[in-house]
Design a protein that fits this description.
This protein has 112 residues and is mostly helical. The protein is built from three helices and no strands. The protein has one domain. The protein starts with a helix and ends with a helix.
Length: 112
């Protein structure tokens, strides 16, 4: 645990012991800071995911082209079945990665 986290925990524990029974267990300023930090973290992750999705789309486009080319080469007898399967597997991995990042962005619920 970092020094800052330990200090926050110590402040939190002291505040909890000193708080009356009817008071909320988390001091309001600390709760506000936590909510703000969580919101900032979600926004940063959303930005990161949007960038990853753009890269995923480019990768998918390239993988689709590679799979088509490999299929043509396979049909012409120029590459092996293993080469074709590798290109098709890479295409599926790109699709899955795009779907995963898109789903994660959707789960964050941040609209831009």
């Amino acid at each position: 645990m970092g020094a800052r986290a330990a200090a926050l925990l110590a402040v939190f524990c002291v505040a909890c012991r000193a708080a009356p029974e009817h008071a909320p267990s988390t001091p309001a300023p600390l709760a506000d800071q936590s909510a703000e930090l969580a919101a900032r973290g979600a926004e940063r992750r959303a930005t990161e995911l949007q960038q990853l999705i753009a890269i995923d789309r480019q990768s998918l486009e390239l993988a689709e082209r590679a799979a088509r080319s490999t299929r043509s080469l396979y049909d012409a007898g120029r590459v092996t079945r293993g080469d074709l399967q590798q290109a098709e597997t890479q295409l599926e991995l790109c699709r899955e990665q795009l779907a995963q990042h898109s789903h994660e962005l959707e789960q964050l619920g941040i609209r831009r």
